[in-house]
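Long-time lurker, first post. I've been practising inverse folding by hand and with some scripts of my own, and I keep getting stuck on stretches where the structure tokens seem ambiguous. Below is the full token string for one chain I'm working on. Before anyone asks, I'm not after the true native sequence, just a reasonable design that respects the backbone. If someone could post their per-position residues I'd love to compare against what I wrote down in my notebook.
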């Protein structure tokens, strides 16, 4: 349903990257299923996993620039007013429910609540939000982003920083995927280690990779 709403409301330049629902009747489909058009391109997760891809600044920069341009087009085309930056209570509630048994949860939530309060003091646009913008849902070709799929968590009016932050964090998350824990990740000034080392590197480390992600 959501792609159909977008195709009714979005301007033409962004529409080729959003799959359309196909309405032709298909009697052999399971109940509740629907058909959507196929989009060209490779999942960015496939490109990301290529050997040496993450070792080269220009390739990472190309990935980030392509997604940044697509987000700019989507958000510029769908801005519907402004309001306080809303990355507060819904996020905290979800984290509390998901990690209730973790002894560190409350400490982390207190820190995040302070960040959320600071962000809420700033104004920003409200736009369409994809809601699950990660490497596997972004299709790319030689030109840039050729499509974005899986809109089931989307919002017509939401907080656009959700897409920006989710993509940046998921891009950083697996930079050590080809490296034995304890060894230096080739092309990066950090060693492979526990799950999330790439995100920690972006938050606190130096070098070209954290710089590019922060700029994004």
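-- Answer (accepted) --
I ran through it position by position. Result:
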């Amino acid at each position: 349903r959501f792609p159909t709403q977008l195709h009714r409301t979005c301007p033409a330049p962004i529409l080729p990257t959003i799959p359309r629902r196909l309405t032709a009747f298909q009697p052999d489909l399971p109940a509740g299923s629907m058909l959507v058009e196929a989009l060209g391109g490779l999942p960015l997760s496939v490109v990301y996993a290529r050997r040496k891809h993450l070792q080269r600044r220009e390739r990472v920069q190309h990935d980030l620039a392509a997604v940044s341009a697509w987000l700019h087009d989507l958000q510029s085309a769908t801005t519907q007013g402004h309001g306080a930056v809303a990355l507060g209570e819904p996020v905290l509630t979800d984290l509390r429910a998901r990690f209730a048994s973790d002894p560190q949860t409350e400490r982390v939530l207190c820190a995040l609540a302070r960040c959320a309060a600071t962000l809420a003091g700033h104004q920003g646009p409200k736009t369409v939000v994809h809601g699950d913008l990660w490497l596997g849902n972004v299709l790319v070709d030689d030109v840039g982003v050729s499509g974005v799929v899986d809109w089931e968590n989307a919002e017509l009016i939401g907080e656009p920083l959700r897409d920006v932050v989710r993509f940046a964090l998921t891009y950083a998350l697996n930079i050590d995927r080809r490296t034995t824990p304890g060894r230096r990740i080739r092309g990066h000034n950090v060693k492979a280690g526990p799950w999330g080392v790439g995100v920690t590197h972006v938050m606190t480390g130096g070098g070209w990779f954290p710089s590019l992600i922060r700029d994004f």
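A couple of notes from the structure itself: The helical segments are 2-9, 44-48, 57-78, 89-98, 105-119, 161-173, 197-204, 208-215. Strands lie at 21-22, 35-36, 42-43, 82-84, 123-125, 127-129, 138-140, 145-148, 155-158. Happy to go over any region you disagree with.
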